[in-house]
């Protein structure tokens, strides 16, 4: 049984169709990259799957259960976690406390939540930062903290929304290592939206391409970069010219 | 067990804070021993009451970031429950107080459930509106004395009556409310690091993120609103026995609602000590200003002008109040 099945998902905002008949199946243990130009409907898809937006039509199945009409917090409790593209925790929680909020989904006890949060922070090499407020950190560290927070809820599936946006190459290396660690060592199934091609192509088992709300291509990274529809829609002739066939 | 341990655990506060808190606690404990005027005593009791109001408001308003300007309606429910039950059926404070709390909490669910569909200013305005409605109902409701209010006549009882909380000397009231004050601090200390406390702080930050972390945002707000209500209603019950004369105008007024919110906002919304600091500054100001300026120069209402000024200063310069300034200075020193 697949972990996530999206059947013919449609999402309209007034007259705008943001997601048009999208069907995606994800097996347990996969790492899928979701790419597409700005406005292609990637984040909308995440919002629909995670229950933040009601879908217009279509069904979403997660772990054998229909989650289409569930609220966001109910979906989260079933083990589907996500991060947000633009999220700066401005409030009074420090890094450790932020991750604890995630952990509180599985326990009532503050001491157990704290212990679990520290485990995760150690695991992702973030424990030196635990006393800082999130707003005091670099963008890269903030992104890693949001990932750690989502992991606090011990998810089966993690949706990552542009965790590498705005990072420099060495930070991208770091976060790539984190994603691999989460995927391989922690055994979490991952879907990531990403504009940083190097990252998507290197870590993904499979890449899905959206354009103007439609799924236009799907396949392993090597095939995707050569697909003429994808090149036209998103990558641009120049990218292919520069990187040739040595991607992935 | 863990609950009690966490309530008593202040280890995340710097030692200087705990020293100051300890000294203040000691002062509060021994204050009545020293010579003092009746006016000073009344001010101290007001300070403790408003600290508790502020602590209650702080749970939903400070940690949860939901600006609630309708707390007075729950003061009224607590006060009226205790007064009505005492006058009509001679029910002691210790029984009527929890019953008043129950009424207030039930009312808070009825009000809170739909109201928390609203956000920001709309929520604040709606809380004001519900209070005004309830106040109007009480003003025409004969069973509770309508606009005349209720009077607990002390001659019927033999003070000191610890069951009914009828005393001749204010010092008894002082120690009763001081006990609640210490319990209130312990409760908030537990609350801020409980699951609900963390969830609320996450909600204040970003509701979408909170939801995606499995938090039922609406329910968490409604629950915390009920907690804040319980605090306020308790003090309302105490108010009835202490003042002995209650009417809708002083237990449910908009002034009171705003003053409650102001305590916490001035001292520092979302911090443990904030409401106490706020009450410690505002209550003496309020009492003495009224006494000196209001009576002598005929400047009635000058206190209201000062509140308005404080609100403007807070919102312009430091939304996190005095405690926010303290934390800013500390942060600067550390880095």
**How many helix segments of chain A?**
9
Instruction: Quickly give the CATH architecture of the domain at 4-84 and 159-243 in chain A.
Output: 3-Layer(aba) Sandwich
Report low-confidence residues of chain B grouped into runs of 5 or more. none
Report the largest inter-chain contact: A-B, 34 and 23 residues
- Tally the beta strands of chain A: 10
| Spatial shape of chain A | globular
CATH topology of the domain at 4-84 and 159-243 in chain A: Rossmann fold
Strand and helix order of chain A: EEEHEEHEHHHEHEHEEHH
Strand order, main sheet of chain A: write it out: 6-7-8-3-9-10
Low-pLDDT ranges of chain A: none
Report the helical percentage of chain A: 25-40%
User: Any idea what the radius of gyration of chain B is?
Assistant: 20 Å
Q: Tally the helices of chain B: what do you get?
A: 15
Distance separating the two termini of chain A = 28 Å
- What structural class do the secondary elements of chain B suggest? mainly alpha
State mean pLDDT of chain B (0 to 100 scale): 90
Q: What's the gyration radius of chain A in Å?
A: 18 Å
Range of strand content of chain A:
15-25%
Instruction: Sketch the major β-sheet of chain B.
Output: 2 strands, antiparallel
User: What kind of sheet is the major sheet of chain A?
Assistant: 6 strands, mixed
């Amino acid at each position: 049984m697949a972990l996530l099945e999206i059947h013919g998902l449609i999402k309209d905002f007034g007259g705008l169709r943001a997601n048009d008949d999208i069907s995606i199946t994800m097996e347990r243990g996969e790492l899928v990259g979701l790419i597409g130009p700005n406005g292609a409907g990637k984040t909308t898809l995440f919002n629909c799957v995670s229950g933040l937006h009601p879908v217009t039509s279509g069904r979403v199945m997660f772990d054998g259960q229909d989650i289409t009409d569930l609220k966001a917090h109910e979906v989260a409790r079933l083990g589907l976690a996500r991060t947000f593209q633009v999220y700066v925790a401005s409030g009074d929680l420090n890094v450790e406390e932020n991750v604890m909020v995630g952990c509180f989904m599985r326990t009532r006890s503050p001491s157990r939540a704290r212990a679990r949060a520290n485990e995760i922070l150690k695991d992702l090499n973030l424990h030196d930062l635990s006393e800082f407020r999130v707003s005091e950190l670099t963008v890269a560290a903030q992104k890693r903290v949001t990932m750690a927070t989502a992991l606090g809820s011990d998810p089966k599936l993690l949706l990552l929304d542009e965790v590498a946006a705005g990072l420099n190459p060495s930070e991208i290396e770091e976060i790539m290592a984190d994603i691999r660690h989460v995927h391989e060592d922690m055994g979490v199934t991952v879907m990531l939206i990403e504009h940083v091609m190097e990252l998507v192509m290197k870590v993904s088992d499979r890449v899905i391409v959206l354009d103007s709300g439609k799924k236009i291509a799907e396949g392993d990274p090597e095939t995707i970069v050569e697909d003429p529809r994808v090149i036209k829609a998103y990558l641009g002739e120049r990218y292919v010219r520069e990187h040739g066939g040595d991607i992935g | 067990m863990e609950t009690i341990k966490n309530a008593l655990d202040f280890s995340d506060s710097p030692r200087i804070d705990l020293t100051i808190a300890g000294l203040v606690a000691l002062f509060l404990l021994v204050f009545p021993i020293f010579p003092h005027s009746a006016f000073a005593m009344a001010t101290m009791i007001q300070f403790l009451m408003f600290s508790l109001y502020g602590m209650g408001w702080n749970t939903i308003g400070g940690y949860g970031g939901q600006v609630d300007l309708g707390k007075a309606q729950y003061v009224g429910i607590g006060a009226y429950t205790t007064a009505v039950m005492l006058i009509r059926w001679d029910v002691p404070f210790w029984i009527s107080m929890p019953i008043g709390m129950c009424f207030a909490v039930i009312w808070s669910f009825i009000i809170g459930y739909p109201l928390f569909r609203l956000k920001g200013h709309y929520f604040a305005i709606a809380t004001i509106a519900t209070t005004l409605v309830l106040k109007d109902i009480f003003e025409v409701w004969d069973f509770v004395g309508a606009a005349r209010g209720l009077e607990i006549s002390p001659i019927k009882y033999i003070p000191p009556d610890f069951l009914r909380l009828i005393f001749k000397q204010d010092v008894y009231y002082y120690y009763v409310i001081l006990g609640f004050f210490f319990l209130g601090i312990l409760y908030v200390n537990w609350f801020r690091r409980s699951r609900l406390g963390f969830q609320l702080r996450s909600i204040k930050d970003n509701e979408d993120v909170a939801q995606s972390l499995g938090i039922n945002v609406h329910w968490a707000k409604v629950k915390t609103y009920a907690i804040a209500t319980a605090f306020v209603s308790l003090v309302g019950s105490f108010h009835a026995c202490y003042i002995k004369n209650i009417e809708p105008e002083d237990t449910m007024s908009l002034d009171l609602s705003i003053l409650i919110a102001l305590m916490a906002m001035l001292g520092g919304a979302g911090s443990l000590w904030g409401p106490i600091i706020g009450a410690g500054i505002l209550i003496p100001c309020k009492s003495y200003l009224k006494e000196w300026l209001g009576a002598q120069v005929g400047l009635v209402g000058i206190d209201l002008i000062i509140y308005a000024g404080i609100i403007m200063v807070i919102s312009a310069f430091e939304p996190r109040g005095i405690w926010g300034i303290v934390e800013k200075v500390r942060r600067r020193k550390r880095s």
